[in-house]
Amino acid sequence: MKKLLFAVPLLLLVGLVSIFALTINRDPSLVRSVLIDKPAPQFSMAPVEGLDLPGFDTAALKGAPTVVNVFASWCIPCRDEHPLLEALKAETGVRLFGINHSDAPENARAFLAELGNPYDAIGADRDRRVSIDWGVYGVPETFIVDARGTIVFKHVGPLTAEAIRDEVLPALEKARL
Question: Which of 69, 89, 97, 170 stands the most exposed, by the fewest C-beta atoms within 10 Å?
Answer without folding.
Answer: 170
